[in-house]
């Protein structure tokens, strides 16, 4: 029997079931008993491999189809009625045409399978800022991941009551046919439909599809913001906690920054870092005129390669129980997992089963884990999870940070001169592409606010929304840009990164509270080199100066690149951004 009387919900499920024709329908109630039965079934069916339950209790490994390993941006669509509302950066299809195409693909797609009904909440159930969703799926992998990544179960249906205000999500892994893979969003209908994938962001519909693409559209309509941002609290030795949020493109360091371990000198002095979220922030103006952030998620879907006890201790700790690993390598000697960078030298296991299920030997050229292999871990596992994680009010944001991977142009850190200038800086972000999305890796592309693949409407309208929000925030956060990825001429990272990024965050926080000076450059304010604490670090002041250097020639090329990018947006480009571009151009003369 259905655990709800909600007519809107029940009739939609009937309608979808009539198309997909599952053999049975199972409601997910979020109970351990039900999840345990599903885990057992997944192991029996070869969907999951149970890992060593002493070393990794509650942990499992999943291998996807080798062609289904990342988000597929070219198969992702925004289906609003008017094409111009999707803008030049989204794939668009007429909604009716897309529904027809998808429902044809869904015809009988769940025959012989079970359709699971997952009621979930983005945000704290019952809080005025939470939004609910229901995902229908034939994938146990999706069910088990969704119960980690979101708040799932009966309490969501209770909170929804008989309201029709929820996001409809329909997913089938179908036949995994690449040619007919679709991740389709219908922002005007609160609907998401995904078929022929069974990987992460394509199918965990609460995450990028709902909490960013649909939510960004809702935010524009309702006066708030859904952003691709981590949320972090920094506690100084006086015990004061100040919060920031940061938008970096996929695989550019959000999860790492969100749970960083302070360098030793900082730790001894009493600095602490608290993780509120590692990927998505929902932001609204509070009654006090500040910008407040909540993390709508409940877990981390983190990049495995590069994660180790030194680079990200807290993330690694988070994966020690109740975690699902996707496309990492399996260590048959002890039933654990491995990925590149987890250990070095003789500590690398001699023999592994790689992410394709093939034997791998230490020293083999091929990497045993996929570069976009991931862990799905409960946020509650994180040793530095903020005490405010479950606070429905969220946390007040003092700084917004943009950043990406730039080998040369962008300095280690600079501050924008105003909210409007900060929006300009965000809108012109560029970064080298990574394995998080299918396609070429290492190509520089514009990725405004790290939202290029995630904005559910016209990007220029989105920039206007940022400008409009600025007017509503009495106490605006200051806006910064960082780049941890500057390279020397041999191609090595100059800045040590990871925990040492706190040295930069300290300066950023001091700027927000008027505790430190800065110097003007053509692109914004930069630290006086002596104001970045280099104690205990193998970085000289000269190296720091190099990291902060703004090369006018490179920046003139940057201006040309921005102009070309902005030209795509025609009349819709906000005047304020054109103005900011002309200031930058003038400053570089
Ligand atoms: P998504 O989950 O895809 O959105 O990625 P993310 O932004 O959370 O990136 P994540 O923190 O997982 O880092 C991605 C990769 O960048 C990993 O291989 C990290 O080891 C590496 N990385 C993160 N921070 C730094 C840094 O400060 N310096 C350097 N050099 N690499 C970093
Ligand atoms: C990203 O690509 O930004 C991710 C992974 O966080 S996914 O959920 O697949 O989008
Ligand atoms: Mn991440």
Describe the structure.
The structure is a single chain. The chain starts with 6 loop residues before the first helix and ends with a helix. The chain is 28% helix and 23% strand. The chain has 16 helices and 31 strands. The model has no long low-confidence stretch (mean pLDDT 97). It has three domains: 7-30 and 75-222, Phosphoenolpyruvate Carboxykinase, domain 1 (3-Layer(aba) Sandwich); 227-295 and 389-587, Phosphoenolpyruvate Carboxykinase, domain 3 (Alpha-Beta Complex), CATH 3.90.228; 300-381, Phosphoenolpyruvate Carboxykinase, domain 2, CATH 2.170.8. The longest helix has 17 residues, at 206-222. β16 and β17 form a beta hairpin. The chain is α/β, with parallel strands linked by helices and 589 residues long. Guanosine-5'-triphosphate binds next to α8 and β18.
Helix content: 25-40%
Bound molecule kinds, no repeats: guanosine-5'-triphosphate, sulfopyruvate, manganese (II) ion
Oligomer class: single chain
Characterize the biggest β-sheet. Answer: 9 strands, mixed
Instruction: Give the CATH topology of the largest domain.
Output: Phosphoenolpyruvate Carboxykinase, domain 3
Q: CATH top level of the largest domain?
A: Alpha Beta
Termini separation:
71 Å
Silhouette = globular
Strand residues, percent: 15-25%
Q: SS-based structural class?
A: alpha/beta
Number of strands: 31
Q: Any idea what the radius of gyration is?
A: 23 Å
CATH architecture label of the largest domain = Alpha-Beta Complex
Output mean pLDDT. Answer: 97
Task: Count the DSSP helices.
Answer: 16
The structural domain count equals 3
Low-confidence stretches: none
């Amino acid at each position: 029997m259905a655990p709800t009387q909600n007519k809107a919900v029940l009739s939609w499920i009937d309608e979808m079931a009539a198309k997909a024709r599952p053999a049975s329908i199972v409601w997910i109630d979020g109970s351990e008993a039900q999840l345990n039965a599903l885990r057992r079934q997944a192991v029996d069916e070869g969907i999951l491999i149970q890992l060593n339950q002493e070393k990794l209790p509650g942990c499992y490994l999943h291998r996807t189809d080798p062609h289904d390993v990342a988000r597929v941006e070219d198969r992702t669509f925004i289906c609003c009625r008017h094409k111009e509302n999707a803008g030049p950066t989204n794939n668009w299809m007429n909604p009716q045409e897309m529904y027809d195409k998808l429902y044809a693909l869904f015809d009988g797609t769940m025959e012989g399978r079970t359709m699971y009904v997952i009621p979930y909440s983005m945000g704290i159930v019952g809080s005025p800022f939470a939004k609910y969703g229901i995902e229908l799926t034939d994938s146990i992998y999706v069910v088990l991941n969704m119960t980690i990544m979101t708040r799932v179960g009966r309490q969501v249906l209770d909170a929804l009551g008989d309201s029709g205000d929820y996001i409809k999500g329909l997913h089938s892994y179908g036949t995994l046919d690449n040619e007919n893979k679709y991740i389709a969003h219908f922002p005007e209908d609160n609907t998401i439909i995904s078929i022929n994938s069974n990987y992460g962001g394509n199918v965990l519909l609460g995450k990028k599809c709902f909490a960013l693409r649909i939510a960004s559209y809702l935010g524009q309509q309702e006066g708030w913001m859904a952003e691709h941002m981590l949320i972090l609290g920094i506690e100084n030795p006086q015990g004061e906690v100040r919060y920031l949020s940061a938008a970096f493109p996929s695989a550019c360091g959000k999860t790492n920054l969100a749970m960083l371990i302070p360098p030793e000198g900082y730790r001894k002095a009493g600095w602490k870092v608290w993780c509120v979220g590692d990927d998505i922030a929902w932001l609204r103006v509070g009654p006090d005129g500040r910008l407040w952030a909540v993390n709508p998620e409940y877990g981390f879907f983190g990049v495995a390669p590069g994660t180790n006890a030194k680079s990200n201790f807290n993330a690694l700790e988070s994966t020690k129980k109740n975690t699902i690993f996707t496309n990492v390598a399996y260590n048959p000697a002890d039933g654990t997992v491995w990925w590149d960078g987890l250990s070095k030298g003789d500590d690398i296991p001699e023999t592994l089963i790689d992410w394709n299920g093939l034997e791998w030997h230490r020293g083999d050229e091929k990497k045993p884990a996929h570069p976009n292999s991931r862990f799905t871990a409960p946020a509650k596992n994180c040793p530095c999870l903020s005490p405010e994680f479950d606070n429905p009010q969220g946390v007040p944001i003092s700084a917004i940070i943009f950043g990406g991977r730039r080998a040369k142009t962008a300095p280690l850190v600079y501050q924008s001169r105003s909210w409007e200038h900060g929006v300009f800086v965000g809108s012109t972000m560029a970064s080298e592409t990574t394995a998080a999305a299918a396609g070429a890796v290492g190509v520089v592309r514009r990725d405004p606010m790290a939202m290029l693949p995630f904005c559910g409407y016209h990007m220029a309208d989105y920039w206007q929304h940022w400008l409009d929000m600025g007017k509503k925030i009495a106490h605006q956060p200051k806006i910064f840009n960082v780049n941890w990825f500057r390279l020397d001429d041999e191609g090595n990272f100059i800045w040590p990164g990871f925990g040492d990024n706190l040295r930069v965050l300290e300066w950023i926080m001091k700027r927000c509270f008027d505790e430190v000076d800065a110097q003007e450059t053509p692109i914004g304010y930069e630290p006086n080199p002596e104001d970045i604490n280099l104690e205990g670090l193998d970085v000289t002041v000269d190296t720091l100066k190099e990291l902060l250097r703004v090369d006018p020639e490179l920046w003139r090329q940057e201006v040309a690149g921005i102009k070309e990018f902005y030209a795509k947006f025609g009349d819709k480009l906000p005047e304020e951004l054109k103005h900011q571009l002309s200031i930058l151009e003038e400053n570089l003369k």
